[in-house]
Design a protein that fits this description.
disordered C terminus, 2 domains, globular, about 15% strand, Arc Repressor Mutant, subunit A, four-stranded mixed beta sheet, alpha/beta
């Protein structure tokens, strides 16, 4: 089974890569990994997450075992398609699933997000160097062992058989840590704009997960206590500038919630917002970058903003 992604010259010109689709996307990949059996380097991570979930373990296991295949939860990161699971699609059920996934994300992903993101940044930067020195086609050829570039088609092995025609709209690439031994996930184009995304697993994913399983991150926990865990995750996401809608999708929260968090972080001097027509793009200020790097108390600016 092979999925074929067809490029035009315009698509190659509009190819881009992001560091990550955000903590909630990694949580969607992680819960798929959490619900599968197997030992090795991932087993310790799985045991550690089960221990930390406590009384929430039952709800998380229900989601992990009910929402299969992995694509069944892609709506949490903005996929416009309908779910295919046996759990229904009512607003109430979706809210419950989203709440459970948020708790899972907070336990399994957010505490390790700083180190995970550094790993993903390294993956993105290595691909960028290949593109600069050897060209975009060389980068596509070395993206993943099960992704094959046969110009002008990118073939994805072990995926549902079919064809995607980009038709000049471009393609977004993103590495993922918790995708682990899955080859990749294709997130279709969103309603209202944005290209489809091919998310690919990183080569050292299992070793990185094993490393994370036994590692505490006191600085990240301190940052969460200072600004709140959702806003701490928002700061991490905003190291790659993004719109309010993208922030909402990457954190797995409502558009109104993302707008509120961005506003509070902006009032604290941690984020700057650039507006173009109806779109607001948020980026970290030097103060926001410094807070992420040091996770130290930065005076009354943050506290007075009510974070």
């Amino acid at each position: 089974m092979v999925l074929r992604v067809h490029f035009t010259v315009e698509d190659l010109a509009r190819l881009r890569m992001v560091t990550s689709l955000g903590p909630m996307a990694e949580a969607v990949f992680a819960i798929d990994l959490f619900g599968r059996r197997g030992g090795g380097p991932v087993a310790e991570w799985r045991r550690n997450v089960r221990r930390q979930l406590g009384e929430r373990l039952g709800a998380v296991e229900s989601v992990a075992h009910t929402h299969q295949p992995l694509s069944d939860l892609l709506w949490l990161i903005g996929w416009p398609g309908e779910s295919s699971g046996g759990w229904g699609d009512t607003d109430l059920v979706r809210r419950r699933v989203a709440a459970t996934m948020y708790e899972f994300c907070r336990v399994a992903v957010v505490p390790h997000w700083s180190r995970a993101r550094n790993h993903l940044e390294g993956e993105r930067d290595s691909r960028a160097r290949i593109s600069i020195t050897s060209g975009v086609e060389s980068m596509l050829s070395t993206l993943h062992p099960k992704l094959r570039w046969h110009p002008p088609v990118l073939e994805i092995a072990d995926a549902a058989d079919g064809d995607i025609y980009l038709s000049g709209g471009g393609l977004q690439l993103s590495p993922a840590l918790f995708l682990h031994d899955r080859t990749c996930v294709v997130v279709p184009a969103q309603h209202g704009g944005g290209p489809p995304t091919v998310v690919f697993s990183t080569p050292a994913g299992s070793e990185m997960l094993a490393d994370l399983a036994g590692t505490e991150e006191p600085d990240e926990q301190a940052l969460g206590q200072l600004v709140g865990y959702t806003r701490a995750a928002a700061l991490q996401v905003l190291t790659d500038s993004c719109t309010t809608g993208e922030l909402s999708q990457r954190l797995g929260i409502s558009l109104a919630g993302a707008s509120k968090h961005a506003r509070v972080l902006r009032q604290a001097g941690l984020v700057i917002t650039a507006r173009h027509r109806n779109t607001a793009t948020h980026s970290l200020t030097p103060l926001g970058i410094a807070l992420l790097r040091s996770s130290v108390h930065i005076g009354s600016t943050v506290l007075e903003a009510g974070i």
